[in-house]
Write a structure and sequence with these properties.
This protein is α+β, with helices and mostly antiparallel strands. The protein has two domains: 100 residues, no CATH class; 44 residues, no CATH class. 28% of the residues lie in helices and 16% in strands. A three-stranded antiparallel β-sheet has the order 4-3-5. The protein is globular and about 45 Å long. The structure holds zinc ion. The site of zinc ion has 8 residues, from strand 4.
Length: 153
């Protein structure tokens, strides 16, 4: 497999891979003021129409490149807490924590994006259904999940 983790993402709105972080967007909706329903999509250029737009409630978007590396960690953590500088309590802006962690892992944890389509597969459930909370999301486990090697093959 020639895939390099954290370099390409499956667009949530078309069958094609995203390979240019400057030509794609992370988008989300607000529900009661909180962020939810995160999407990773191609920008609407070159005839693409992956961006669902504000009519579908996706009024907020930031280029995917901002979510990568250390800067991306800092950006996404600021959604959970503004921290000590602003000194305002209870500043969580994330409405759905599971959807947020899915987004965070897609953009930060090596091999999560590649393994993601296989989480419901019989083989994945067989080998990982009974493990502890973090084992399925370790980069090595994710790589073996992506490559269909969980059985030790
Ligand atoms: Zn697309």
């Amino acid at each position: 497999m020639t895939t390099t983790p954290l370099k390409s993402w499956q667009c949530d709105r078309c069958p094609d891979l995203i390979t240019d972080p400057d030509m794609s967007l992370v988008m989300w909706r607000r529900e009661d003021g909180k962020f939810t329903d995160f999407l990773i999509v191609h920008k609407s250029t070159d005839g693409r129409s992956c961006d669902p737009g504000s009519r579908a409630g996706y009024q907020e978007s930031v280029e995917l490149s901002n979510f990568l590396g250390d800067t991306g960690v800092a950006l996404m953590l600021s959604w959970l807490s503004m921290g000590p500088v602003r000194g305002v309590p209870d500043t969580n802006r994330v409405g759905d924590l599971d959807k947020f962690v899915d987004l965070f892992r897609r953009l930060q944890v090596p091999w999560y994006e590649e393994a993601r389509p296989r989480f419901q597969d019989e083989e994945t459930q067989h080998w990982l259904g009974d493990t502890n909370e973090y084992y399925p999301y370790l980069p090595d486990t994710l790589k073996r999940t992506a490559e269909g090697r969980l059985g030790g093959r």
